[in-house]
Write a structure and sequence with these properties.
Elements lengths: L3 H16 L8 E10 L2 E11 L6 H4 L4 E9 L5 E6 L7
Antiparallel strand pairs: 1-2, 2-3, 3-4
Amino acid sequence: MVTIQEAAEKAVAFAQESLGPERSKAMQLEEIESANEGGTDVWRITLSLPDAYPTNALEAIGMRRQYKTFAVAKSTGEVLSMKIRELWGKA
């Protein structure tokens, strides 16, 4: 079984590979939860990224963020999906 830490690492690696190094530069771990999707036990990992492309870490502070949730199979560590996570009450 994949641990929470391993699942988070898999999600981060998938995001970096899929979104590229510039877009994922200031990525942050936001949430982890256990879930079942389509009969498969998964870890849902939510990561946030800046809406814009900061040139350094200080620029990223205070920027609006977008959130993506990754489903990572507990049995294999395979990333099964990457979805945009909408926030309630987001203006």
